[in-house]
Structure formats: structure tokens, C-alpha cells
Amino acid sequence: MRVLLVDDDRLSRTTIVKMLEHSHTAVSVDEASDGTEALQRYRECGPYDIVLTDYAHPGLNGYLLADAIRKANPAQSIACLTGDIETGREMWQRLKIPTLAKPFEAWQLEEVVEFAAMLVEHREGSFKGGIE
């Protein structure tokens, strides 16, 4: 499983990577500490099996990052990890991106990853192009 993980908190990224490695035998995680770096990494290396993004980080926030990725690739699986439940509701209402409230357990992360993948599978059509 290929993951793009976006969070400005290094400790959070390290913890999430360990959770993913515990749940998946073959996981490759690209990390970014801000939205601008993440979008560049997506342009160079995407698509991913899932993009996991915090909402509040430097550069493009999680919403703007997810919106940019979805415009280029509507089939990209994305989930938001945030400490702000209101932000999570907005991400769901506007972009249909599942949100996991911090702090969370490994099993909860696994469930949101699976749910995000399921949402993509049920969308009509898919686009495998890159971001221009």
C-alpha cells in the first residue's frame, strides 16, 4: 500500500507510520510536512492508494490540498486526520472525505483507510491522470 501522509507534527507522522506498518505488511509512506510540499510530491509520485492529511498545516490546508488532488484525480482515496471535529464535518459535507478525530487508535485509522477506499470504489468512473 502506497500512502502520502501530510502532517506538520513530526511525532504524529512517526506514530501514524508505525500504525500503518503494524496493520499492513507492505506499506510505503511518503511524508510531507505541509500542503504545498504534499501537492508537489503528489504531482511527482501520485496517485497513491490513499492520501492521509491533517487539516491545519502550513501551505495549503487539508481542504485545499484535498480539493486540488480531487480536481485532478476524482478517484483518489483521501482521508482527513484532525483534532477539530467541525473541520471534519466540513470535509465530509464538501468533498465526501472521511475524517478521523485525533487522537485515535490504530484500529480506527485502519477503518477510515478502508472506508475511504470503499467510497472511491463506489464513485462512477475514474481518472488516472496527474495534476497539471
Could you describe the 3D structure shown?
- Helix 1 (10-23) crosses helix 5 and helix 2 (35-45) runs parallel beside helix 3.
- The longest helix has 17 residues, at 106-122.
- The chain has a single domain (2-122), classed as Rossmann fold.
- Strand 1 (2-6), helix 1 and strand 2 form a beta-alpha-beta unit.
- 48% of the residues lie in helices and 17% in strands.
- Strands 2-1-3-4-5 form a five-stranded parallel β-sheet, with helices on both faces.
- The radius of gyration is 13 Å and the shape is globular.
- The chain is α/β, with parallel strands linked by helices and 132 residues long.
Key features of this structure:
5 helices; alpha/beta; single chain; 17% strand
Overall tally of domains: 1
The CATH superfamily label reads Response regulator
Strand arrangement within the widest β-sheet reads 2-1-3-4-5
Helix/strand structural class: alpha/beta
- Parts with pLDDT < 50 across at least 5 consecutive residues: 124-132
- Level-2 CATH architecture: 3-Layer(aba) Sandwich
